[in-house]
Amino acid sequence: MKKWFLVVFVVVNTVFVSCITNKDVVYLQDHSDGNDTIPVLRELPKPYKVQVNDLLSINVKALDEELTRIFNPIQGNTNTNSSNGQSQSSLYFNGFTVDDHGKIKFPILGEITVLGYTTTEIEALVKKELLEQYFKETAELFVTVRLPGVTYTVTGEVNGTGIYTIFEDRVNIIDALANAGDVMLTGNRKDILIVRQYPDGQRIHHIDLTDIKAMNSPYYYIQPNDIILVKPLKRKVFGAGQTVMQNFATVMSILAGITSLYVLTKSF
């Protein structure tokens, strides 16, 4: 009797403990006691500062369009609503890539250091240099500098691994994962890894997307060239099922095999 009780206990424990629960898959859960106000994002992320290998779209406008033609090699093909491939390929050949020394090569002006500058700061810098070397104040000069969307990589336990671009200035990590088909049931939402580029190299950061406090994390908003890694839950590593029925079927199959083996050995 005790043996059967032990078998039943093991079966029930495996079925109900090993399956994936709501706490594993629901985003931004409120873990407070219910008396506190749900925290919200305290402040927007600081403006992004340009890094090595970033691609910049720079557009120069003036009263005389003929004078600006040399500065706008992709003029007329900068529609951000165009297909991802066409937009990115055009900018790859005609945009301005930040080299290993943090510089871009700009027509007439030559090399300009942009590493560590925001796009607003680069606009002011390019406009200043153009007014000093090429244009007059009466030209009504207007310079815009933009990053061609946020390009990032997603890999691991997601439904669509790959490199993606979202044409927005700010993209949070949930939007980024949703764009990649979302995290699979077997993905560990409690420990998402973000590999981020800095001037001195790459660093790995962690964020728990099942906790609403993630909205206050400095890594809630992704940056260009981020790599998002989604690890599998330990349940998947150990081969457990995703639902109660899957675990029950697995355990019953094992018990059936053990029973059959026991019967066969008794018959000899």
Main β-sheet: number of strands, strand sense, barrel status?
A: 5 strands, mixed
* Cα gyration radius (Å): 27 Å
CATH homologous group name of the largest domain: Outer membrane lipoprotein wza domain like
Return residue spans where pLDDT drops below 50 for at least 5 consecutive residues.
4-9, 75-86
- Average predicted local confidence, pLDDT: 80
Order of helices and strands: HHEHHEEEHEEEHEEEHH
Shape: elongated
User: Could you say what the CATH architecture of the largest domain is?
Assistant: Roll
The assembly state of the depicted protein chains is single chain
3D architecture notes:
- Helices cover 32% and strands 19% of the residues.
- The protein has 268 residues and is an alpha+beta fold.
- It has two domains: 22-43 and 149-236, Outer membrane lipoprotein wza fold like (Roll), CATH 3.10.560.10; 55-146, wza like domain (wza like fold, 2-Layer Sandwich), CATH 3.30.1950.
- The longest helix is centred in the C-terminal third of the chain and has 24 residues, at 244-267.
- The protein is elongated, with a radius of gyration of 27 Å.
- Mean pLDDT is 80; it is low at 4-9 and 75-86.
